[in-house]
Amino acid sequence: MNSSNHATAATGQNGPVPESTSNQDDLYQTAINRLKHIYRKKLKPLETNYNFEGFHSAPLTDMDIEAKPMVLLLGQYSTGKTSFVEYLLRSPYPGAHIGIEPTTDRFIAITDGPESKVIPGHAAAVAGGLPFHGLQKFGNSFLSRFQVSQMSHPLLRSMTIIDSPGVLSGEKQRIERGYDFPAVIEWFAARANLILVLFDGHKLDISDELKAAITTLRGQEDKVRIVLNKCDQVNGQELMRVYGALMWSLGRVVHSPEVMKVYLGSFWTNPPQHRYEDCRDLLEKEQHDLLQELGELPKTAAIRKINEIVKRARLARVHALIVGHLRERMPSMFGKKKKQAALLDSLPTEFQKVQLKHNLAPGDFPDPSTFREKLQLYKLDSFNKVNLRLIDVVDDALARDFPQLMGLFPGTSSHQTSHAFTGYSTGGQSESSGQPGPSRTSTMASGDTDPPSYNVAVSSPKATPHSHTSRY
């Protein structure tokens, strides 16, 4: 790209970027600053007072709240997770390995940076500009299998992508990981804006470890999308059967009445020669819908942050009421051990008492068995009793502060920021330039082996006050 194209990228195809884009960036920063203040002053004291960290997650830092949208990729080995990232970026990221054998052996965070480089896990966990401080709790064994891959790319100015190790079958590989794989998945899932679980049409079995990982996504179902990849390797009739088999397999793992959104697609940077074309139109539409959803993430970054903090506030409030209630049920002197055992055995009943007393929603309560597991590590009389002042402060935030914050975003769904996947639009006119644009799934074209060029228009509060349009 020559210097004139660089200038175009900095100012937009048709001159300076409208003032509204800068206003939207200012609005984002205003919302994030207020959100940090609300969390620090009203929610964090409640979390600290009732050891929320010991049961759920560590207190959020300013970097956690400021972090760009995050996309987490999960799946068994060779389902196309790393290839999917390459498909989005149109080039390999630093440290990427692709093959039919298990290749990605670590968690890799792909982020924007001035130059292509790999930051080892221990250094990334203490780096001031990265939101990965909380990963230190998983120890040296995990940090040795974590890295940050930085590269300069317009898409990465709007989001961070987490590529995870492929899940294998068998007990041996699970034990030899050396760290709690489901717990790490849970940590990333809590911070992710979108979770893509990839399946290969030829390998639909769900191993025990993948089942455990999917189970940790409970409570994050609104973020989860299933991607059935490599669909052009089967014909239309076989695709119907594969889809049905996938639904059956998921039904045995995901115990939820809601149906997860499933996307069909084939995300290749170098498509194989043998591909079925009878479902091409369907796959193009499905891929377009998935890319469109990914492109929406930067638009709603602040709203999603608010949503996550509100969810956390409700969880922290219920947590405080539960442990405070259990503390009040403990005797002052004798029989503490026996009483604690009785309370742990009757935890669902105690949950019900708290729910009725404080008029809480059943869906706000944690899973009793998981909560009991963690509660056994503590003496109940070591917790603080219910502090209604702290509870009232959080109630005030939920009733007044968060609604006022949401009031900053009228009409958020239609016209806030540029689309991050403009160049994937179907032929016709490119949205950002008004010029003919490439097909959104030109990698599916017969005989096409090279990744096509495309436009990426990104307006990110974490990048610059104007949109970036680059030609690849």
Automatic annotation (TrEMBL):
GO terms assigned for molecular function: GTP binding
Pfam family, one: Dynamin_N
Low complexity: bias regions: 422-439
Membrane topology per record: Peripheral membrane protein
Compartmental location: Cell membrane; Endosome membrane
Region called Disordered, residue ranges: 1-24, 415-472
UniProt superkingdom: Eukaryota
Domain Dynamin-type G: residue ranges: 65-298
Keywords tagged on the record: Cell membrane, Endosome, Membrane
GO CC annotation terms, alphabetical: endosome membrane; plasma membrane
SUPFAM superfamilies listed in its UniProt record: P-loop containing nucleoside triphosphate hydrolases
PANTHER family per UniProt: AT21416P, EH DOMAIN
Protein name: Dynamin-type G domain-containing protein
Taxonomic path: Eukaryota, Fungi, Fungi incertae sedis, Zoopagomycota, Kickxellomycotina
